Amino acid sequence: MTSSKRRRPTVVDGDEAEADRKRILITMGDPGGIGPEVALAALADRELTGSHELVLVGERRVFDECAAALRLPQPGAVIESGERGARYEPGRPSTEGALAALDAIEGAASLCRSGDADAMVTSPVSKAAIAAAGVEFTGHTEHLAKLAGVTTPLMLFVAGPMRVALATTHLALRDVPAAITSDGLVECLLVLNDGLERLLGLPGPRIAVVSLNPHAGEGGRFGSEEERVIIPAIESARNEGIAVSGPHAADTIFCGLGDASCRLPGAAYDAALAMYHDQGVIPVKLAGFGGAVNVTLGLGIIRTSVDHGTAFSLAGRGEADAGSMKAAVRLAASMAARRSASERDSG
Predict the structure, then answer these.
(1) Which domain holds residue 257?
(2) Residue 275's closest CA among 166, 190, 179?
(3) Domain count of the chain?
(4) What is the distance, to the nearest Å, from the Cα of residue 303 to the centroid of all Cα atoms in its chain?
(5) 59 lies in the same domain as 142
């Protein structure tokens, strides 16, 4: 990976605007998917580039060819994360393309950890293609956590006022109950509370914990996890000073979540902690598909992502919607700005 060191601006009178200009890295994603296209579309947005320094991470050849084919502006700075020499065909996953996507992820994460970038935004990859290449990979969240050496990464989806975190991520549904523990839920709530306060600007956030079973278990009639695992975790988190309640039935708590202007059940809360992937992601995508953002908390770096996959069937046709990518860049920049302000205040 080739890159150049960047000196951080020193904040003096009149220089705050320059200090607040963040360096945001955008990874290539699978070169056979729509990742390169939506990344280039973000660079073509003058609102984004006027406020922040956006830098692509991946293979320049992929970006150049995508820009030429779809008549998008040619990229400026590209940090080369590797040159595998293979030809990547739009619309087709490949082993070499999967590994190139992984190179970009790891390169961007390294630059964020070293302080050479303020945040990273990831384009979609193919989990199946990466696994077929012989790499153990269940998703960006888990892979970035492994690189960072952290044990409790937290996946958080943001769609407007709706914020939903996941206690478990990419698991078969049959494996979810055993994966949910009281200690694990407390750790999730601590990470979520810190992220909401420090990076999303929500002091004293109110968090709703979602039940695993229908009707919050109905007093044990539909399962015992609420009584045995979830309620003790909520009580422990309250003892840590977190404003948390539940368990709330999943069929109502997402209604109006985060929207204080309505009287729906979720309006009383700033965020929810769902027990498994589809329980939390389905309502988010119903509320804001194409504009929702996937955030990973607890990594020590800022990472956001699009809310969609590689869409191989759309690749190379110029039909991809870059709304989620642009939203992910905006959110990454705002999180980086809040972190910088917090560090200045504490320093």
Answers:
(1) 152-295
(2) 166
(3) 2
(4) 6
(5) yes
Are both 67 and 191 inside the same structural domain?
no
Q: In what order do the strands lie in the sheet with 206-210?
A: 78-80, 53-58, 23-27, 119-122, 303-306, 293-297, 154-159, 162-166, 271-274, 206-210, 243-248
CATH number at residue 162: 3.40.718.10
Q: How far apart are CA 342 and CA 72, in angstroms?
A: 37
Question: How far is 121 from 56, CA to CA, in rounded Å?
Answer: 10
Q: What is the pLDDT of residue 19?
A: 57
* Domain stops at, among 295, 312, 333: 295
Weakest mean pLDDT among 14-18, 81-85, 179-183, 209-213: 14-18
Cβ density class 140-175: b for 16+ within 10 Å, e for less: bbbbbbeebeeeebbbbbbbebbbbbbbbbeeeeee
Are 11 and 34 contained in the same domain? yes
pLDDT more than 70, % of the chain: 94
Please tell me whether residues 24 and 133 are part of one structural domain: yes
Provide the whole-model pTM.
Answer: 0.91
- DSSP-assigned letter for residue 44: T
Tell me the DSSP string of 174-191.
GGHHHH--HHHHHHHHHH
